[in-house]
Amino acid sequence: MAFKKEEEIIIEPKDIFVGNPDAPVTLMEFGEYESEVCAKANEIVKQLLDEYEGKIRFNFRHFPQTLIHQRSLKAGEAAVAAAQEGKFWEMHNVLFENRRNLGTTSLKLHSREAGVTDKKFLDHLVNGKFGWQVQDDLKEGRVLGIKEIPAFFVNGELVKGKPTFANLSKEIEAAIKKSKRKSPAKQRA
Asked: Under CATH, what is the fold of the domain 13-181?
């Protein structure tokens, strides 16, 4: 008699959001955890989530620049591992706070700080269990034409220019207005 192997469901980065799940605007970033520019952008995203509370939701996708930052890939895997316990955003912020200290052993310590309790966390990192999810983000980013990070999208449209609060706010405001123009048509339908 053959045993049926249980299929493990892995929560993927494309399915992890913070903010209002029904928000009219989706802000998506492709970035990595070792980049100073991405760390600064993370602070801007926090401000945007406060400023547009209820109006936006945010999704972070991994785009590790492994030629420059050798530890960025494993850091992305650590975030995906934390997501399996619902701790993605906690780990996300801890990784940015500790972006200069992202060795595999340090990632285990950071996971505790983020509240991750999985006893196999280090094994998962060493064995690359969540490497495919990070690679999938990287591939999708390449398909979207990303060449440098951070790269932001508002409702699927690439934001041109530097990821400043003013620049991203302008794009979010335009997307909110656009969504309001569409909503009366939905109500009549």
From this structure: Glutaredoxin (3.40.30)
